[in-house]
């Protein structure tokens, strides 16, 4: 009989130890969740980026944290390791259960996380999307980093400035059916025709957002068009590949290059003079504005209706546009003077 | 020491499984240990984790673990025969993609479900054919088909996702029973549960499954159709995985090639935790259900307590290793307990 007892005791010991591990972890963290019983305004705002460990979202979260610290809310960031919609769903479910004040999410799929977000809203959680939107009926607000017109305009202005307002330019795009890029290219063509009649767009080539293809297409462009003065690449893969080609070629400093890129991938080319300036939105400002929009929703200052205005700290006042979209503003220009301030 | 030899003469029943009273045989089992642990974790979580004790937790928990519960049923049977099916998550992905592609092409959703289930059955039959007829080890076969089926899934749909499904079906997947918080999909699982419990524990087919796991040769000589049994199990596994794929697609409202990647490991972890021996011949369905729920509740509670997914994986992993180790430890304890007579006899015979 003694032996049987020892076996039961061993089982019990195992059970208790696992339970202790589980509760130990739980107890350690449960204190940090801000109470939802603390008054009417629950300023616990949780950011749910596409995935964690992504420098772009690290930057946006740092902006969000700065904003939330300013208005003394509680900042938290959770997210999956891989950017998949089903992983985001379980995080949204958890946040719903926790009863946070608002979820700020960058959607991995416009449709798939919809139901989970609507359940959260039914439970009284405000939902703000940023960077990547869901369907408009699944969220209260979308903080749009930049609109198509702004993106097209800034790139054309940059290249026009760099080549002196006249000459031949070309575009190195992503794939031939990339929705965003095609919309931007259409707008660029219109804007070029109306504001810069002396600039001719000689060719648009497609690097398929593949580093090697983009590299080869850049080389081909420069050989086919010996008078080419500038290249616009409205894709982060394309601009980096083009910069890599230009920086080691005879065209360095003679053919201007601009487009959409991130500071980390283009830092060395800005420093060696291949690129004078390029554009992108500032993710830190995006996170900052998202946090203030969430605060305004939680406090009931706005409902997400068109025409609502709210205060966004250092960024000033913003107005909600059609479909509950708030536009961050014009894209941000990165150049040799400010690139050292960014790490994403 | 010499007197110990006398113990061999005592008239106790030596057949190990029947030398204890019934209540002990029912309660002092590995399965009940997991059930007990499940209860403890659930109670502790409700008390200490804020937000865990609310009804919506149950809803989300059931929605989350349903695919694992479904696939764990045939997986239990397969693992009791000593085989394994690692391709299940890829079949989920393939089924999801087929649903997506057919819906996109305008086919009726019912047809898409049928095609997905048939594809799952074929996928399972391919596994079963390679294991039973060709005679390859299931570990190798299903690692191969894990890559193969996932490749087909991603190849069919690329990196895009289909997200437009009939609202009737997506609502059905998330519908709750009456006014309660229990999702209706639980009924689907309960029906299958009854089928599998009867199949495994109350039919000659089920006894054959245990016999195969204990000794394939002995089973064959006892009249068990070893190959046919395994083939049936692999087809079942593929079909149920495809069914889980249909559910998964509707639950998350998106058909993607990478849906449910890595799910096979969660299923196998739960099955092993639930007391099924990886060497076959041992295991019961109630233990497996408890295993799935234990991992599900633990993950749910830890997520609520803001523990990151990496840490949750670590804890699940430790739990799994601990359960396997404790199993060996208890077995060792049991042999040690029986040792006085045995070793003495061995010594005596060695001396003699």
Structure description:
The complex is a heterodimer of chains A (344) and B (352). In chain A, 44% of the residues lie in helices and 19% in strands. Chain A has two domains: 44-145 and 283-329, Rossmann fold; 148-280, Response regulator (Rossmann fold, 3-Layer(aba) Sandwich). In chain A, the strands form four sheets. A six-stranded parallel β-sheet of chain A has the order 2-1-3-4-5-13, sandwiched between helices. By secondary structure, chain A is α/β, with parallel strands linked by helices. In chain A, helix 3 packs parallel to helix 4 (114-122) and helix 7 (211-224) crosses helix 8. Chain B is mainly alpha-helical. Chain B has a single domain (18-347), classed as ABC transporter involved in vitamin B12 uptake, BtuC. The model of chain B is unreliable at 1-10 and 342-352 (pLDDT under 50). The interface between A and B is large, with 48 and 58 residues. Chain B: Its main location: membrane. Chain B: It is a multi-pass membrane protein.
- Summarize the amount of helix of chain A as a percent range: 40-55%
Radius of gyration of chain A: 25 Å
Question: Can you say what the CATH homologous superfamily of the largest domain in chain A is?
Answer: Response regulator
Q: Give, in spatial order, the strands making up the sheet with the most strands of chain A.
A: 2-1-3-4-5-13
Helix residue percentage of chain B:
over 70%
Report the sheet with the most strands of chain B, covering strand number, pairing sense and barrel closure: none
Number of helices of chain A: 10
Inertia-based shape of chain A? elongated
CATH classification, class level of chain B? Mainly Alpha
What share of the residues of chain B does DSSP label as strand, in percent? Answer: under 5%
Succession of helices and strands of chain B: HHHHHHHHHHHHHH
- The helix/strand order of chain A is HEHEHEHEEHEHEHEHEHEHEEEE
CATH architecture assignment name of the largest domain in chain A: 3-Layer(aba) Sandwich
Which CATH class of the largest domain in chain A is shown? Alpha Beta
Domain count of chain A: 2
- Round the mean pLDDT of chain B to the nearest integer and report it: 87
**Overall mean confidence score, pLDDT of chain A:** 86
Strand content of chain A: 15-25%
What is the count of distinct domains of chain B? 1
| Assembly level | heterodimer
């Amino acid at each position: 009989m003694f032996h049987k007892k020892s076996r039961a005791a061993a089982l019990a010991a195992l059970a208790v130890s696992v339970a202790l591990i589980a509760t130990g972890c739980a107890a350690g963290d449960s204190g940090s969740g801000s109470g939802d019983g603390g008054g009417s305004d629950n300023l616990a705002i949780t950011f749910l980026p596409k995935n964690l460990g992504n420098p772009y979202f690290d930057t946006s979260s740092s902006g969000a944290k700065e904003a939330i610290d300013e208005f003394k809310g509680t900042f938290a960031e959770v997210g999956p390791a891989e950017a998949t919609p089903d992983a985001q769903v379980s995080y949204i479910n958890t946040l719903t259960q926790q009863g946070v004040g608002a979820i700020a999410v960058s959607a991995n799929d416009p449709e798939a996380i919809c139901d989970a977000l609507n359940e959260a809203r039914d439970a009284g959680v405000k939902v703000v999307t940023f960077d990547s939107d869901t369907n408009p009926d699944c969220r209260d607000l979308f903080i749009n980093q930049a609109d198509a017109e702004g993106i097209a305009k800034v790139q054309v202005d940059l290249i026009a400035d760099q080549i002196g307002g006249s000459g031949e330019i070309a575009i190195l795009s992503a794939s031939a059916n990339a929705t965003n890029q095609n919309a931007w290219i259409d707008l660029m063509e219109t804007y070029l025709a109306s504001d810069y009649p002396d600039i001719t767009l000689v060719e648009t080539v497609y690097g398929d957002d593949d580093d090697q293809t983009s590299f080869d297409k850049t080389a081909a462009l420069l050989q086919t068009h010996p008078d080419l003065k500038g290249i616009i690449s409205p894709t982060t893969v394309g601009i980096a590949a083009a910069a890599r080609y230009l920086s080691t070629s005879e065209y360095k400093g003679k053919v201007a290059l601009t487009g959409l890129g991130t500071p980390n991938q283009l830092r060395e080319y800005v420093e060696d003079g291949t690129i004078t300036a390029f554009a992108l939105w500032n993710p830190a400002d995006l996170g900052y504005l998202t946090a203030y929009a969430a605060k305004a929703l939680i406090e009931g200052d706005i409902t997400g209706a068109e025409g609502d205005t709210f205060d966004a700290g250092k960024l000033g006042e913003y107005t909600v546009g059609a479909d509950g979209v708030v536009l961050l503003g014009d894209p941000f220009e990165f150049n040799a003077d400010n690139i050292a301030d960014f790490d994403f | 020491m010499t007197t110990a030899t006398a113990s061999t003469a005592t008239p106790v029943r030596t057949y190990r499984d029947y030398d204890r009273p019934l209540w002990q045989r029912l309660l002092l089992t590995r399965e009940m240990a997991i059930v007990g642990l499940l209860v403890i974790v659930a109670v502790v979580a409700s008390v200490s984790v804020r937000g865990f004790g609310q009804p919506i937790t149950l809803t989300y928990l059931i929605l989350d673990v349903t695919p694992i519960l479904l696939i764990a049923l045939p997986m239990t049977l397969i693992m009791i025969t000593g085989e394994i099916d690692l391709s299940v998550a890829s079949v989920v992905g393939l089924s999801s993609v087929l649903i997506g592609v057919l819906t996109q092409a305008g086919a009726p959703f019912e047809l898409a479900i049928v095609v997905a289930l048939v594809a799952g059955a074929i996928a399972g039959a391919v596994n079963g054919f390679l294991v039973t007829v060709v005679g390859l080890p299931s570990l190798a076969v299903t690692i191969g088909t894990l890559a193969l089926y996932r490749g087909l899934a991603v190849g069919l749909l690329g990196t895009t996702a289909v997200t437009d499904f009939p609202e009737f079906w997506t609502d059905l997947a998330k519908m709750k029973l009456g006014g309660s918080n229990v999702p209706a999909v639980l009924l689907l699982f309960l029906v299958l549960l009854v089928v599998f419990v009867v199949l495994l524990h109350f039919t000659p087919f089920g006894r054959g499954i245990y016999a195969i796991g204990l000794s394939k040769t002995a089973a064959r000589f006892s009249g068990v159709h070893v190959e046919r049994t395994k083939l049936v199990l692999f087809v079942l596994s593929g079909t149920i995985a495809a069914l889980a794929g249909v559910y998964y697609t509707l639950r998350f409202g998106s058909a993607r090639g990478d849906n449910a990647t890595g799910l096979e490991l969660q299923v196998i972890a739960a099955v092993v935790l639930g007391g099924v021996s990886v060497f076959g011949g041992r295991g019961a369905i109630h233990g497996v259900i408890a295993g799935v729920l234990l991992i599900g509740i633990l993950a749910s509670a830890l997520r609520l307590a803001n523990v990151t997914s990496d840490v949750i994986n670590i804890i699940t992993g430790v739990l799994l290793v601990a359960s396997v180790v404790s199993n060996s430890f208890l077995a060792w304890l049991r042999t040690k307990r029986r040792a006085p007579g045995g070793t003495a006899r061995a010594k005596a015979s060695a001396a003699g």
